[in-house]
Protein 1
Amino acid sequence: MTTVAIIVAAGRGSRAGGGVPKQWRALGGSVVLAHSLAAFRASPDIDRIVVVVHPDDMPRAAVLAAEGITFTAGGATRDASVRNALETLADSGATRVLIHDGARPLVSPALIARMILALDEVVAAAPALPVTDALWRGEDGHVIGTVARDGLYRAQTPQAFDFAAILAAHRAHPGGAADDVEVARAAGLDVTIIDGDEDNIKLTYPSDFVRAERILRERRMDIRAGNGFDVHAFGPGDHVWLCGVKVPHGRGLVGHSDADVGMHALTDAIYGALAEGDIGRHFPPSDPQWKGAASHIFLTHAVRLMRERGFALSNCDVTLVCEHPKIGPHAITMQQELAKIMEVDVTRISVKATTSERLGFTGREEGIAALATALLVTA
Ligand code: MG
């Protein structure tokens, strides 16, 4: 079984604005056509891709060249373009073909897989969505009637066919068909409706590009969680540093840096979300330059790394475990201090505390433990 894809991108559509045919306009850091190509290339069941472009666009097409992709010149009409592409594949051994409109860049590999699967059962299938909005007939900006929507569908692509059947249908068709379903039906083929995809929009107007950019951003949304845990022992001193706040206490915390256990846990949570190890990896304790260092240096580094990787902090939550000092009176100041260091809104930062009911090393007041969770999202 050899399955080929034909992407039709020979139109000169200019209603979308931008001065160039819409399939060559920029979208999501690439050109419109590149997105469809990527979806078909990501589909393991597609063996070969033929892209139909306008002869004038051949130089533009060169940048999309890749293994398994051939470019062919379009004809005067859409159905002539498709027929040209089918003819170039006539002796290629293709048994199935998906024909896709290059102005639908958001086609998903899942929809492509659905269409190929349909061809296991039928000779022709097309994706569509039922019309759910009321339909009106209008004239001069006024409603002059309603149209029953029962049985109406919004047609999409890729439309999927048995190769020999659709080639024969195109050869027999006089021309002027709106799409390949029309050509198939004219040849007597039964076309099965497959569930389309609401995001598989056709770019026609400038507002469609805005919507497509939004959908692409959502698809790229990446969410990372990280956790951190740290412990420092009490030693001599008259204060401790906790989450960037100097808290008077009968003892100090022992550590290579300022021993800010809360900030260390939070820093490790961010490194963890980025799969970037922990503080010790970036600031080795063996390096004397970090002796007595203020811990905001570590946190600032983790936050900078986070931003460089394209993430923003959605929220973080730090829990300090100790009997003393009492954290409650300082918690808001700690949140404000962390917000300042991380340059994020204070409402995204939580600092809270618990005792361990006098159990264990924190209960015996031998030291303080801290846990932190950080959630990072695509910026
Ligand atoms: Mg530490």
Protein 2
Amino acid sequence: MSTIPTATVSRLVTYLRILGTLDEQGVTRTSSEHLAREAHVSAFQVRKDLAYFGRFGTRGAGYVVATLHDELMRILGLTRPWNVAIVGMGRLGEALADYPNLERYDFQLRAAFDVDRDKVGRTVGKLVVRHMSELPRVARDERLDIGLLTVPSDAAQDAADALGRAGVHGILNFAPTVIDPPDGTHVEPVDFLAGLKRVSFYIQQPPSRKQTA
Ligand code: NAD
């Protein structure tokens, strides 16, 4: 698994979204060319990404949308529920607790944590905010798999380490800082400001220069 490039995993998520849309539209077959156009990559790239996981589709006939969708769900580990906790119930943590699409892919929101005594005990959505000291017990009882880390940057490493010690092996880190993954965990950064800086880079040139580039 470790030989699969991160970019391939990202593109599989994109292909899954495209296949989901095709399925909703009642389209039953598709091709690497169509997936490539929608994902803004080459058809060769689509075939190469899928080839890491076996042979899908038939030469000339393309892919059955529902079958490839199910295969990608299996490859991405989305055919089982994942128990999710939010660590840091400030502005972002509260917004994520209200986000309705989490459970669409069976990400089950099970717990919320904070260190602020004023927040502990409050109900947010369907969760009661608990103190971080309860993390080991709750992680065991609720079989937590994934932590959404929404604490300030200077608290992120300690909170990630606490998640790792509690046996929570997946962390989605919203804090704009690099975290050393605790042993046996995978940390995925979601850096909103870095995204804005990339947007700034791409739109800074006046349109006339972009056309000649
Ligand atoms: P916030 O200050 O509103 O909330 C942070 C929460 O984390 C607080 O409730 C605080 O008590 C709690 N906390 C602090 N240390 C903790 C610890 N060790 N364990 C558990 N909880 C702890 O901040 P926010 O705006 O929600 O942002 C949270 C993180 O997400 C920050 O790193 C921020 O840079 C990042 N972020 C925020 C936004 C946004 O729109 N608010 C967007 C992108 C990224």
